[in-house]
Amino acid sequence: MFDIGVNLTSSQFSRDHDEVVARALAAGVNGMLLTGTNLAESQQAQKLASRYSGCWSTAGVHPHDGSSWTPAVAEAIYTLAGEPQVVAIGECGLDFNRNFSTPHEQEVAFSAQLALAAELSMPVFLHCRDAHDRFLTLLKPWLEKIPGAVLHCFTGSRSEVQECLDLGLFIGITGWVCDERRGLELRELLPAIPAERLLLENRCALSAAARPQAETGLAA
Fold it and tell me: Which of 216, 150, 149, 215 is nearest to 187 (CA)?
């Protein structure tokens, strides 16, 4: 099993990287993609990926950190993307839910990273929350120039997932689908996602652990 969303750079793991990776391997995870959400974390993710067999990383700037995008950061991400462990640009996209960076700052950073991915012929690791229409407007012109794209941690609607699938995106699903209450809509749309386009992610340490429920066989 391959986990496409591991936040191993989280401070919660700062003292036990070896143990976290060992537990994942023992649980049957044979590959992990370590997520970079800003320049410093992208650099750290690459270093961690170089330390552990079966680990790769992304390099990019999350929309929350869109205000940090500068020519210097762009150059550093470009350089980092040349490392063999770095296999995708991101996490990048739009998040209009809390707007830690302004929508304009997010759009500038997102568009620049799409251009970078096209220049380097690298796939993109995408984030979208409460910004579906604008997100696709910016993404669509680049899809023919980018070798692949995954929209991670999908929590949108059936119509939104279908639109993403029609554009050729892969869909990342987290433990959110196991939430008895909040994950109901996501569970119901799972059959609409072809198995070959469905990717799994733990999203540790940002998502709470899940426990199976006897009544449903799901988790909470």
Answer: 216
According to the annotation, is 132 in a ligand binding site?
no
161-180 per-position pLDDT tens digit: 999 999 999 999 998 788 77
64 assigned binding-site residue: no
CATH topology of domain 2-200: TIM Barrel (3.20.20)
Domain spans in the chain, listed from the N-terminal domain onward = 2-200
pTM value?
0.90
Cβ atoms < 10 Å from Cβ of 89:
31
Q: Give yes or no for residue 101 having a pLDDT over 90.
A: yes
Three-state SS sequence of the chain = CEEEEECCCCHHHCCCHHHHHHHHHHCCCCEEEECCCCHHHHHHHHHHHHHCCCEEEEECCCHHHHHHCCHHHHHHHHHHCCCCCEEEEEEEEEECCCCCCCHHHHHHHHHHHHHHHHHHCCCEEEEEECCHHHHHHHHHHHHHHCCCEEECCCCCCHHHHHHHHHCCCEEEECHHHHCCCCCHHHHHHHHHCCHHHEEECCCCCCCCCCCECCCCCCEC
- Residue 17 labelled as part of a binding site: no
pLDDT at 209 over 70: no
